Amino acid sequence: MADFQRNSCTNFLCTQKGMLLFAEIILCLVILTLYGASTSGYISLSLIELILAIIFFIIYTCDLHTRIQFIHWPWTDFFRSLIAAIIYLITSIIVLVERGYRSRIVAGILGLIATALFGYDAFITCPMRQ
Questions:
Q1: Where is the signal peptide (predicted)?
Q2: From CA 44, how far away is CA 48, in angstroms rounded?
Q3: CA separation (Å) from 100 to 44, 81, 111?
Q4: What is the DSSP string of the chain?
Q5: pLDDT tier at 130, thresholds 50, 70, 90
């Protein structure tokens, strides 16, 4: 049983969606740390997106999306990534315009990178495209 779960996790991590979710988790964690060092006003965005990315990573890794049928997972994941991309874009522009500490500027730039990452994730998971 443990080998099956390990292979399932390894198989999902090797997919494009698995690598995207893992990159989103790492990027949200770095941005959360940088926002925490410079300003506390934008911590909640990174924290919520980090938690949602971890939840979706667990759901896809454990194949719960095939067992829980009453939720349409592609649309849910699409809206999660699209909303994250829009909100990261807005907060990154605000942080970069305000200027301030170097950690704040780096967090703004990484927020723009997160916008591109979440936008790409929304693009590949769009159910209308499939």
A1: none
A2: 6
A3: 19, 28, 15
A4: -HHHHHHHHHHHHTSHHHHHHHHHHHHHHHHHHHHHHH-STTHHHHHHHHHHHHHHHHHHHTTHHHH--SS-HHHHHHHHHHHHHHHHHHHHHHHHHH---HHHHHHHHHHHHHHHHHHHHHHHH-TTT-
A5: low
Q: What angle do CA 112, 48, 29 make, to 5 degrees?
A: 60
Give the type of residue at 20.
L
What pLDDT does residue 1 have? 47
Average pLDDT score, the chain: 85
Residue 101 carries which side chain, given as an amino acid letter?
Answer: Y
Q: Is 126 exposed, middle or buried (0-12, 13-18, 19+ CB in 10 A)?
A: middle
pLDDT of residue 6: 55
User: Within 10 Å of residue 8's Cβ, how many Cβ atoms?
Assistant: 14
Q: Position of tokens 């919520």?
A: 48
Q: What is the per-residue pLDDT across 84-95, written as a single tens digit (0 to 9) for each?
A: 999 999 998 988
